[in-house]
Amino acid sequence: MSSSSAAAFGSADSTAARRNTKRPKYSKFTQQELPACKPILTPRAVISVFLLVSVVFVPVGVASLLASRKVVEIIHRYDAECIPQSNSSDKVAYIQNPSADKTCNITLNVHKHMKSPIHVYYQLDNFYQNHRRYVKSRNDEQLRDSEKWDSTSGCKPEDMANGKPIVPCGLIAWSLFNDTYIFSRNNKNLTVNKKGISWKSDRDHKFGKDVFPKNFQNGSIIGGARLNDSIPVSIYVNNNYQCMYEIYGSPLFFYEQLSQQEDLIVWMRTAALPTFRKLYGKIEVDLNEGDTISVILKNNYNTYSFSGKKKLVLSTTGWLGGKNDFLGIAYLTVGGLCFFLAMAFTIIYFVKPRQLGDPSYLSWNRNPGGH
């Protein structure tokens, strides 16, 4: 065999060997040899980090907790007291009776000055809006596009009524909260502003401006509130909005699209937990300490079938939003824990120091015999 043939044969063998090997191709990336920051966790560095975290977290926690404590809340549970004594033995039958008078009067006492805007919430307990079948029971195409009004896939069992598609379809819309509240102070009504209570992104992108309710709550079982099919037409006259009835002497109406029905939009944003609050509206006047607020409410919504609770909540807001002590407590807990660890490591460092990188602390040097 000539030398050239032997060289060619050897080259082929080496190429085949490289193809068959499982060793990765060498590179600094695969071998983790790229330039990198590799800090050494010295005692001073660890103590400094813990102290820095505690110095930052503790003031933030104190500020968050103080902001939460400044929020004034009035919470009143009314589901039990709004059942007549004669119907207390069968609450479900009472709430499902359409001819029964559901009017209830309650009184709220303002224990501290409440600065406007005052947010009015309804709170439901033991209501699982996060149930998978409930969350999926809607059709977003139908809510966005008027041409898809008959698209009811995923909405069963509330997809059709009397042989016609329901708009909006699904269990979420069908179970829309329908208790109502009328507030007064010193025999003067307190107006509740229900505009702007939903997310603007929901109004603009999830609910079409040309989509209108159709055939809603027309089935054999009524789940919750009915939607406003029409509202009075108002026009701007003499620096004021006036109903067309006042101008032309007869009422005129136009259909209200889903993007304007903000109670529905708020309800359709499902809650993650079984206890949740939904914004009902805003009172845009201050409430003074010692004021007595009279509330006439309609106790329509059925929470008695699943042992749920209903509460009316009036709340101010701070720079962090509503009343919530969790964020402040969490910051204080983490900051306090880091401060404790920093002090503990400092004591150990001064009481029982050891040389950094001392090989005598390695296990095989501490036990030369391997025992």
Automatic annotation (TrEMBL):
Transmembrane segments: 45-67, 329-351
Location(s) in or outside the cell: Membrane
Low complexity composition bias: residue spans: 1-17
Record key words, sorted: Membrane, Transmembrane, Transmembrane helix
Transmembrane keyword on record: yes
UniProt-annotated stretches for the region Disordered: 1-28
UniProt superkingdom: Eukaryota
Membrane-related topology note: Multi-pass membrane protein
Coiled-coil region: none
A GO CC term assigned to this protein in UniProt: endoplasmic reticulum
The keyword Transmembrane is assigned to this record: yes
Family under the similarity heading: Belongs to the CDC50/LEM3 family.
Protein name: ALA-interacting subunit
Protein's organism: Arachis hypogaea
